[in-house]
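Renewal narrative, Specific Aim 1. Our central claim is that a sequence can be written position by position from structural information alone. The example that follows is taken directly from our test logs and has not been curated for this report. It begins with the structure tokens describing the chain, in the order in which they were read.
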């Protein structure tokens, strides 16, 4: 794998001017408020599993428009005080999987909510169970162009709202210390975490790992990998839709979300990442508004990034912030 993007020095300084819609904040404030009004109390069902050090609960909570969203909640067995929590979002095409697949956070003493991604969960992993009941107009295969004709109909409007409502849901539980909630995720999950960090109040940390959904205008011309190629294929057919497409995407760009961050941030980037090019990650990192931020660069890695090494960095970051 060759280096294909900017040099490390250029990446560290890369701060593109990305214009944002004048009604960006109004759009998202109205979206979140409407979904909160349509909400209902989270539903938790204990799961009889083979795990002995972790209690597993099957969760349903109200996402976008009150739609039911599935999640796993993993709690350290025997906890007697309200716990700090980590909400995790999943990479493109995956679902919440099985509870036994993600035990690190609960083993470290945190409550861990793993949100299913609506409509996904059938590309890799152990599956998901949350439908997306909303239709869209013309789209390519995948999720990137569903509803691309209008920000109000775009697929990620629903997903990003689900992410905020996942934070709301876990804060409502007596087992959780609502003042100590962090968000994380890799790839698509990292992009979703950036959105949750912008649109949720009072988080203690935002930890996007090799985040997707950042700096769309650069990504689609720089990489020939999926999922950004979904946008390329769409525009190769809808030849006159460029302006409308990127106007829609501007409401969902991780760089613009990063500008609204109000909690400390820990990023990771892989310098040989052809899926989420390094410059798109640095664009979000350099725009990240909170003064406490750090990025870990994996010089010789593709989109797998730091893997388990990055989880160790995240755990240490929360400990430095006193979130234990």
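The sequence written for that structure reads:
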């Amino acid at each position: 794998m060759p280096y294909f993007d900017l040099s490390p020095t250029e990446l560290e300084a890369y701060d593109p001017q990305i214009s944002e819609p004048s009604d960006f904040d109004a759009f998202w404030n109205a979206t979140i408020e409407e979904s909160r009004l349509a909400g209902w109390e989270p539903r938790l069902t204990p799961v009889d599993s083979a795990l002995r050090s972790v209690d597993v609960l099957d969760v349903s909570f109200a996402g976008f428009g009150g739609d039911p969203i599935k999640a796993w909640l993993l709690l350290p067995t025997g906890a007697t005080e309200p716990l700090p929590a980590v909400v995790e979002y999943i990479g493109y095409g995956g679902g919440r999987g099985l509870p036994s697949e993600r035990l690190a956070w609960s083993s470290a003493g945190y409550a861990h909510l793993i949100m299913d991604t609506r409509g996904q969960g059938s590309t890799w992993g152990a599956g998901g169970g949350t439908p997306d009941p909303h239709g869209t107009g013309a789209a390519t295969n995948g999720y990137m162009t569903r509803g691309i004709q209008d920000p109000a109909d775009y697929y990620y409007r629903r997903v990003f709202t689900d992410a905020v409502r996942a934070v709301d849901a876990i804060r409502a539980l007596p087992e959780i210390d609502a003042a100590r909630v962090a968000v994380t995720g890799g790839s698509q999950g990292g992009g979703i975490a950036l959105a949750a960090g912008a649109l949720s109040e009072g988080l203690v940390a935002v930890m996007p790992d090799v985040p997707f959904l950042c700096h769309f205008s650069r990504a689609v011309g720089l990489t020939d990998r999926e999922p950004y190629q979904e946008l390329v294929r769409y525009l190769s057919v809808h030849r006159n839709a460029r302006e409308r497409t990127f106007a829609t995407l501007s409401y969902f760009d991780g760089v613009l979300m990063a500008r609204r961050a109000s909690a400390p941030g820990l990023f990771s980037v892989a310098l040989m990442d052809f899926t989420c090019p390094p410059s798109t990650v640095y664009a979000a990192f350099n725009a990240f508004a909170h003064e406490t931020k750090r990025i870990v660069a994996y010089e010789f890695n593709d989109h797998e990034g730091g893997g388990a090494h990055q989880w160790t960095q995240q755990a240490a970051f929360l400990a430095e912030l006193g979130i234990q």
